[in-house]
Amino acid sequence: MAGVKLNSLVKVYSVLLLRKRPMHGYELLKLISAIVGRRVSAGNVYPFLNVLRRNRLIALSSSGKRDRKEYRLTASGLKVARGIENGFAELVDVSFSGKVRVCAHCSCKLVSGWCKKLVNGEELIFCCRRCALAYRRD
Ligand SMILES: [Zn+2]
Predict the structure, then answer these.
(1) How far is the CA of 87 from the centre of ligand 1 (A)?
(2) Which CATH number fits domain 9-96: 1.10.3720.10, 1.10.10.10, 3.80.10.10, 1.50.10.10?
(3) C-alpha of residue 104 to centroid of ligand 1, in Å
(4) Is the Cβ–Cβ distance between 17 and 28 less than 8 Å?
(5) What pLDDT sits at residue 32?
């Protein structure tokens, strides 16, 4: 991981897409282009795939009749992909912290669409009417 910098969306998506399944470089290029909404050039992807390969985060395997090479994540590459996912999860947590409400009945987390109900003079938050009614019976 020392020689790998994930300093662009193209690089991040390369790793995350290969986490889903092994694929050919061209397929990866097409998928990333579709996600970022512009044509991504081979010069943005293949050199990075080589960096990943030199750092043993991906490996090449042959497949198909034309024997084209498929890239797949190695065990180390999978760790890097999980690290990215955890980073995004933390980012989402931070951006929603203070905005997330918790249902007083079922404890599920809510970012919008909750309902409020006065219970013994206290305004409580519920995810749905069913939870609000069930809470009164508790
Ligand atoms: Zn609930």
Answers:
(1) 28
(2) 1.10.10.10
(3) 7
(4) yes
(5) 96
